[in-house]
Specification:
Length: about 210
């Protein structure tokens, strides 16, 4: 049991910041494991000419999906793991070569983009690893255009049916997760309007959207 828990702890910590050979394998695995991304993206409009940022892009699958959706726009990905950036860059090489995608080593704390730059910001399975949630959401709001949206997509939210499993994951990964109404509150506290929250209860999935007005 202890060995199994040690392995789980290493895996969860690699989700936070993939590092080394195992980290790169984990980043690639994210591209197959995050089924929640497609469901979550169905809750926002992606125009073909949108400029989009994916925060914590991991293995780069969501960037790739968004680049196909915004076929006449541009998609940027950031991750604070250099190994994730390397994997995501390989996965998106075709789009990078054509100028449709750029991927940077950067943190959500201080984004390397000007004000009012993006139509949409996405974050799949990353928000609970951010160092200062409200401050970081405010930083995302800075780079959004007026009328632009942020969407947080997650496989975990606080619900009694999954509490035993989720509490263990949170302890191993040293992160905090939230109730649906808490998503509304922290997005509101960061200055977003027209906030919507939807859940897929049987899977413990959640998507929360806010608009910069």
């Amino acid at each position: 049991m202890e060995l199994t828990e040690n392995i789980m702890e290493k895996m969860v910590k690699q989700c936070r910041k993939p590092t080394g050979i195992f980290g790169r394998l984990m980043a690639r695995g994210m591209n197959y494991g995050h089924k929640v991304a497609g469901w979550g993206l169905n809750h926002v409009s992606v125009n073909k000419d949108h400029t989009i940022l994916d925060v914590g892009c991991g293995g780069g699958k969501t960037v790739n999906t968004l680049a196909k959706m915004a076929a006449e726009g541009k998609v940027y990905g950031i991750d604070y793991s250099e190994d994730s950036v390397a994997v995501a860059s390989k996965v998106n090489k075709k789009f990078i070569d054509s100028g449709r995608v750029e991927i940077f080593h950067a943190s959500v704390e201080s984004l390397p983009f000007p004000d009012n730059f993006f139509d949409l910001v996405t974050a799949v399975e990353t928000y609970y690893f951010w160092p200062s949630l409200i401050d970081n959401l405010i930083e995302l709001r800075r780079v959004l255009k007026e009328g632009g949206s942020v969407v947080l997509i997650n496989e975990v939210y606080r619900h009694e049916m999954f509490e035993k499993r989720n509490t263990k994951w949170a302890r191993l990964g040293d992160f905090t997760y939230h109730l649906p109404e808490e998503f509304r509150k922290f997005l509101g506290d960061a200055g977003y309007s027209s906030i919507t929250v939807d859940v897929l209860e049987d899977k413990n999935w959640i998507v929360a959207c806010g608009v910069k007005e």
